[in-house]
User: What shape does this take?
Amino acid sequence: MQAPDYHEIQAVLGDVEGGPASAEAHGTLCGLLCVAADDLPGAWIENTLGDLGHDASPAVADVLEALHDWTRDAIAGDEMALAPMLPADDVGLDKRTGALARWCQGFLYGLAVRGLKEPATLPDPMGELVSDLAEIGTAVHTEGGDEETAEEAYAELVEFVRVGVQLIFDELNPPPKTQLPDRATRH
Assistant: This one.
């Protein structure tokens, strides 16, 4: 399954009055997936669409359901294929940085809405990662300075977020342990 396109999701959410940016909506979805919310994608779609909820067109719900399915498969898969849904590199760094901050805010919201509130109460490295994501959620790009260095810093932040979220997911959703047969029953 191919990753949904940021601009397609943004266009769909832009059609919904007061709809959140696609980066924030995707971050929220990832946070909910990390805490194994059992009412997905329905509750996430309804929350994302806000007051329109069930009145939204089926096409909008279909696009969001496809985003959910792709994200669930990417975060739970073995290839670490999850990538935050962010604007492409041809978009200005200020807008990409803002989208990354909104993605992190959405992610933290997704965790908090299901009960993970205080990073200090989480075991390391998860607590530290959540605190770092909160810090990235306040990031802004300021003009000036070396653009190449700023681009490299942005790319490193995106990779940090991608890997950090995967680690949080893996910590909160360990694979089931296989039980070995009891020695007494083996011959």
Observations:
- Helices lie at 6-14, 22-34, 42-49, 58-76, 93-113, 126-136, 147-172.
- The mean pLDDT is 85.
- The chain is about 55% helix and 0% strand.
- The radius of gyration is 18 Å.
